[in-house]
């Protein structure tokens, strides 16, 4: 047991000195210079999806609110303890709010929020942990996806449409559920081809365009002429394949018609299901700065334009029957006439 | 014979030192090539390691890597390359978490059940590769890689709410349900630093057991003999098939244990966010540690340090990927330098024996033959 | 010591070759084909070359003799460009050269026929010969013509279109020689070419060598078989402990003199004096049959052995699915008896050993040890039950080369005292016993913590013999127990086997060294194509007769009569 003793000694020598410094932290909400931080999910900044959207919100806050932003990336294969350490150090440094991007931050935020009751913690895509100083930022992805389903069913000539999910996790299943329901409600005879690229903990399905491309090609071969890819960066592969075949693609998260990296395919990007992560981040930061921090579940749905469809492709705007159907469906959902399922 | 022993020690240490120094130099070159200050991130990492919470993270991760690397090493000792440690670790963590959440037993018993289930799951999963190898001649390298892929799908399927998984209300995560508190392994509270997982000490104890089994038992001798020369071992009476299967079972069992520190000490459930990649890092750790329990401990400590001390580099504006580069270079450097050192060592010993015999240093024998 | 020249004055006879070469020579007489001077190679390990000087005359067969490990192979590797000497000069045809690869040596007209053939079995002779030499004469008709030409010129009798796998050992060797000649070699190095041949084949090889010589080629012939050397060589150089100790004239030298020069002491003899054979059977083998894997089920296993053993040979000419590696082997070895098995390698000896050890599973047959049926018993149980094993390939089957000596002492006996108790190793006792073995069996080592790889072959073998004898075996399998072992160790190993025999041990001796077989054995059997085809009395049999039987030409009880010669029956 000599090794044990050594291990203990190793820790003991530095007892009381922790990476975040203990007393130096300035009072969190000191008003004048608000510091906000986001801790990314796997993939980090540059994933052209989720994390990037969160970053965009932070940037906007920096520009418009004069907030000083900080970011931190996760390591591959880390545990909750690593996330706790990361959030703690961000909170100790005086950041408020501290936002965890993605549900995997839930257990860590539950712990850290208790230690920093004066700091607001944002938790995206999760409502399982709650506290007065936690804002759960969640989205009705299924509602946006329902509208995408309506578009797909209307725009399809073959009656076969495709859905490509990045990784088979409950979050993406919400996309699938809404989309499928939207298609079926519009054209009960339409066929939806569904494919997931990878299964957790393999998150390649969110990051590898070649996977998305191969899956889309398979669906195109089977006669699909509209493909909706909810697969982060991997979705760009699907867009590429659909575009090459002269078929329609539907983007996700942000308005992909406007994305520089996809400029050469944009004519075939009929629309995109937007999810206003960046807005939610901005709103949270703003609320803290204004001294009225958000708390509890903050839901972004169709009604608040937290999710929706992009209409920047002129070809889409020209399909008046499609847009009309979309408008009707949107109204029905907002009015509660249609309830969209969250699981297939 | 003191001289030869000292030589052996120097030669034994030469491999890792050579590997580490060359990987360090190469990493510095990479940093220079990308126009970054090569010294500052390393200084930051060393600084980081001075903090108690980082230290706790390092110690805890060391324990996890140590268990997995022991699993890899026992295979290496008989030339079995169990790449499937990752899959065995994940499946075992998942299944034992399921069982742990489903039963409610008094404290120690509850923990014991979880641990045994983990061992059994890991062992069975690795055993499949063992059986395929002995009955069908399938290389364990191929079959364990395949089993890793199958693990991913199998776990993803098992964890679906319609099967065994639980989706906590309001969460997008899937878990296996919470293990009751009786199944939690107590840790050592380090105050501000956090908790050292109690299972870390089990890991260290297993290192001692590993040493004893390998070096002091018949089984260990057979295992090593098989690793050094399969043909000689077979001629000596080792049942190669039995040996392969036994080694795979032990290897898988240890791999299964690798999930225990986190499961019993922190997460108390298997979720989509359960750490991955442990099994692959463990291969490097076992290689660097030369399959020796003490060597592996240092290698695990080093890798845990690299991993954990670098986690906040990005806040300081340095890419934390440099540790991955460093680890990758270590793998290559280890393979090359060990072979170099091995050849040098063999030559050197032959030379020494030749010299000592020429100088009349032989053990006095009964029959002295006239020259 | 009259036959020895103590200083090296190159004889320089008149050049036997016509002066077709474009090289300008200073001397009136042709320079020596090869002249090595002051060659020193500090080689890590046991033996290095030290100040070697050899002069090889053109158009002669020059024998290089020395014990195993004397440094012959190193020297030849230097000459063939595989290794660089630390000091000294090499001159070929009077011109000083340095070789940094075999390619350089080949360009200089030096060719090497290795002890282990380097031929692709599934290719034809033609394909093997042109392989890697495609630029010389192409791969088609021109190459075939050239092969025919060479074959005819030197009487090699090589058929270009035969598949190598169909050829016997002697034929393969001729293909190797042809390969070298095809590449334009004028100086041939033959590394222990007779080790794999039976006596009749050796004679045929020597005829070929004489043919080469008469055509003006030079042959360097490495061997440690003195009788052969005297038969074929024009000059002899003796190497001992890495240095040239003398030259000899084969016309006047005797084997005894050569041997004394080679080892610096008298040659031991494998002769076994008084018989210790008892009538208590120790090991009995009945109808042991093993079919080549893959088609095992196809061949009927119960074919009775034909009454006339001669007929058994012809049976094999028929195509049988699943070749029989062991064909109805029956034998009994009594306490105190050494049964020797003669045979060209690859005729089932290895399989027989493995079957007796339990390393393969025969299709039929019963093996009993000391009255107990052990046919289905594991290797370990057999070893515990008293079977000792000196394997034919000690590196593959007898040692852990990278492990220290004391661990090698445990190998094969890990379950037995003093190595372990109740599953736990006892390194202290094992080490102590290793020291005893080192002492009693004269293993030359500075200690028991050095690796097995750092010992010379002879000392490795003595360690194995000591280890196997330490567990009081009832039955010892000794496969080529003195192969690659120096003469001193050879005598000690023979002593050990004889001592054990006297103590009532049954021994199965398999060896390619016919003198060893005849000298040690109480009974001799000949193995051919998986069958025991002949029996002989070691007291009356000659190596030549045994050689005939080994090629399958003679069967049954061998008598002292001369057998017909059959050079390459395989």
Mean model confidence by pLDDT of chain B: 88
Structural classification of chain A: alpha/beta
The CATH architecture designation of chain B is Orthogonal Bundle
Level-2 CATH architecture of the largest domain in chain A: 3-Layer(aba) Sandwich
The figure for the number of domains of chain A is 2
Distance between the termini of chain A: 53 Å
Could you say which overall geometry of chain A the principal axes of the C-alpha atoms support?
globular
Topology order of chain A in helix (H) and strand (E) letters: HEHEHEHEEHEHEHEHEEHEEHH
Overall strand count of chain B: 2
- Provide the β-strand percentage band of chain B: under 5%
Helical segment count of chain A = 11
CATH homologous superfamily of the largest domain in chain A, by name?
Response regulator
Helix content of chain A: 40-55%
Strand order of the largest sheet of chain B: 1-2
Instruction: Work out the largest interface and the residue count of each chain.
Output: A-B, 52 and 59 residues
The fraction of residues assigned to DSSP E strands of chain A is 15-25%
Q: How would you characterize the largest beta sheet of chain B?
A: 2 strands, antiparallel
- In helices, the fraction of residues of chain B equals over 70%
Distance between the termini of chain B: 25 Å
Assign an overall shape of chain B. globular
Please write out the topology.
The complex is a heterotrimer of chains A (344), B (371) and C (570).
Chain A: H1 2-13, E1 35-39, H2 50-65, E2 68-72, H3 80-92, E3 95-100, H4 106-115, E4 121-124, E5 134-139, H5 141-155, E6 160-167, H6 170-186, E7 191-198, H7 209-221, E8 226-230, H8 235-244, E9 248-253, E10 269-275, H9 277-289, E11 296-300, E12 307-309, H10 314-318, H11 320-334
Parallel strand pairs in A: 1-2, 1-3, 3-4, 4-5, 5-11, 6-7, 6-8, 8-9, 9-10
Antiparallel strand pairs in A: 10-12
Helix pairs in contact in A: 2-9, 3-4, 5-6, 5-11, 7-8
Chain B: H1 2-33, H2 40-48, H3 52-76, H4 85-102, H5 107-136, H6 140-158, E1 188-189, E2 195-196, H7 199-216, H8 218-228, H9 230-235, H10 240-257, H11 260-267, H12 278-288, H13 293-309, H14 321-358
Antiparallel strand pairs in B: 1-2
Helix pairs in contact in B: 1-14, 3-7, 3-10, 3-12, 3-13, 4-5, 4-6, 4-10, 4-12, 5-6, 5-10, 7-8, 12-13
Chain C: E1 34-41, E2 49-56, E3 61-65, H1 72-79, E4 87-92, E5 95-97, H2 102-107, E6 110-113, H3 125-130, H4 134-137, H5 141-153, H6 169-182, E7 187-191, H7 199-214, E8 218-223, H8 226-232, E9 235-240, E10 243-248, H9 255-263, E11 281-291, H10 309-315, E12 324-334, E13 338-342, H11 349-357, E14 364-369, E15 372-373, H12 379-384, E16 387-390, H13 394-398, H14 405-410, E17 420-421, E18 424-425, H15 427-440, H16 457-469, E19 475-479, H17 487-502, E20 506-510, H18 514-520, E21 523-528, E22 531-536, H19 543-550, E23 556-557
Parallel strand pairs in C: 3-8, 3-9, 6-7, 7-8, 13-20, 13-21, 16-19, 19-20, 22-23
Antiparallel strand pairs in C: 1-2, 1-4, 4-5, 9-10, 11-12, 11-14, 14-15, 17-18, 21-22
Helix pairs in contact in C: 15-16, 16-17
